[in-house]
């Protein structure tokens, strides 16, 4: 009965205040085919509620979009709502008093009872007040494989990372890139982080990113991860694409054997009408250690000197967390919902694997939730250099990594 009451309260909050339609500009960096299909679900729901979604998509990755968003907010030209990843990306904006307090919306919908895991809402909270609406859970720890590529190479579709590395020569003999990796900085560091938690385990990952333990970062467990990163670097040497979705397309078209990428890649497979388990295979935790991170996206609402738009901001925040919107958006996005009481019977095989891992509690925080944007940026820069310069040895890269970790905040 409590969940029904929460739902009715949320519906009332949206419906009771939607009589006067208001336009809100919403900025985000969801511009790939799968992402565009997903964000359209949010826009349709907001428009159907009586308000107007003015799409402010910014082409490029979050690393491109975030400085633009932050500059507008600081510069006095705020949008109605803006995407950030779960974690500390908007922390300074909240501390500066530039973000709308959503605590009344969260209390009306009972967010503390329905949003899971609790770390998602904790990332939105400062001094007991809630400043963002989580919309999804994205996990990085996936290896996506082209079944057609391995069939062409005459080898079985791998079931784990070691089998994938062993299959690389057979793929290359057929002119197939073993590992597709785009040139954006977050892709290479993201792949490394997946290797770390999959091969070295949860405890090592947390000692490095949460405890900032430079000794562990310089130690033998992480050395093994850097050896695997060196293998990944060699396997991706001929992957010359830039964007992550271009790398995903190499897998979709069988030009590459696999890609380490977050579950948002599912949206691209879906747009290409590919079927999980038939056209492609997904290995959570690289088939070694089935743990997923609870990263993802949330919407923040900059303060506006406009009472009407402020009310529309709260209506949108409430709408984003409703069951219907959670299902429609996340099925298209490939991500998991931020509430466990929604019907995802239509989920594909890969999403069901993610839901099962989440239900078991085999989760870790995303690095964005554990380190500042500056520290994350330094790690991103290191791995761009490492993947593009074969003269940098794994040992040298590890020493630099340990130094960054030791000075991280």
For the record, the CATH class of the largest domain is Alpha Beta
Biggest sheet strand line-up: 2-1-3-12-6
Give the biggest sheet: 5 strands, mixed
Helix count from the secondary structure assignment: 21
> What number is the mean pLDDT?
93
- The separation of the N and C termini measures 44 Å
Structure description:
By secondary structure, the chain is of the alpha/beta class. A five-stranded mixed sheet has the order 2-1-3-12-6, sandwiched between helices. A four-stranded mixed sheet has the order 8-9-7-10. The protein has two domains: 2-138 and 296-359, D-Maltodextrin-Binding Protein, domain 2; 142-293 and 371-406, D-Maltodextrin-Binding Protein, domain 2, CATH 3.40.190. It has helices at 2-16, 33-48, 62-74, 91-95, 103-109, 111-114, 118-122, 147-153, 161-173, 185-200, 202-209, 214-217, 220-235, 244-252, 265-271, 307-320, 323-333, 349-360, 367-370, 373-388, 394-406; strands at residues 23-28, 52-57, 81-85, 125-126, 129-130, 132-134, 142-146, 177-179, 256-260, 280-284, 292-293, 297-300, 363-364. It has 21 helices and 13 strands. The protein is globular, with a radius of gyration of 21 Å. α10 (185-200) packs across α11, α10 packs across α13 and α20 packs antiparallel against α21 (394-406).
């Amino acid at each position: 009965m409590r969940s029904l009451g929460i739902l009715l309260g949320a519906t009332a909050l949206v419906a009771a205040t939607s009589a006067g339609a208001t336009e809100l500009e919403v900025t985000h960096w969801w511009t790939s085919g799968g992402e565009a299909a997903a964000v359209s679900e949010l826009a349709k729901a907001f428009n159907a509620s009586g308000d107007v979604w003015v799409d402010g998509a910014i082409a490029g990755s979050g690393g491109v979009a975030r400085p633009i968003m932050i500059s507008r907010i600081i510069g006095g030209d705020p949008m109605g709502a803006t995407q950030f990843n779960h974690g500390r990306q908007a922390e300074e904006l909240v501390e500066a008093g530039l973000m709308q307090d959503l605590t009344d919306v969260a209390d009306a919908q009972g967010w503390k009872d329905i949003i899971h895991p609790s770390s998602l809402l904790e990332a939105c909270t400062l001094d007991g007040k809630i400043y963002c609406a989580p919309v999804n859970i994205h996990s990085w720890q996936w290896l996506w494989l082209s079944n057609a590529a391995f069939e062409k190479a005459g080898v079985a579709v791998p079931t784990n990372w070691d089998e994938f590395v062993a299959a690389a020569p057979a793929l290359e003999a057929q002119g197939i890139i073993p590992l597709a990796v785009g040139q954006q900085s977050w892709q290479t560091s993201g792949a490394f982080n997946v290797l770390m938690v999959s091969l070295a385990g949860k405890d090592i990952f947390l000692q490095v990113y949460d405890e900032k333990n430079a000794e562990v970062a310089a130690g033998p467990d992480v050395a093994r991860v850097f050896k695997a990163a060196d293998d990944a670097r060699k396997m991706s040497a001929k992957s010359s694409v830039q964007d992550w979705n271009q790398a995903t397309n190499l897998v979709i078209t069988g030009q590459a054997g696999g890609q380490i990428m977050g579950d948002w890649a599912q949206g691209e497979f879906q747009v290409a009408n590919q079927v999980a388990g038939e056209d492609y295979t997904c290995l959570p935790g690289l088939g070694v250690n089935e743990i997923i991170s609870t990263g993802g996206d949330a919407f923040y609402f900059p303060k506006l000197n406009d009472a009407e738009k402020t009310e529309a901001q709260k209506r949108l925040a409430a709408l984003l967390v409703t069951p219907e919107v959670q299902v429609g958006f996340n099925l298209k996005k490939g991500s998991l919902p931020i509430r466990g009481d929604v019907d995802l019977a239509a989920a594909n095989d890969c999403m069901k694997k993610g839901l099962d891992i989440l239900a078991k509690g085999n989760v870790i925080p995303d690095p964005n939730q554990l380190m500042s944007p500056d520290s994350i940026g330094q790690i991103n820069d290191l791995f761009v250099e490492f993947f593009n310069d074969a003269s940098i040895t794994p040992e040298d890269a590890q020493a630099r990594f340990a130094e960054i970790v030791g000075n991280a905040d």
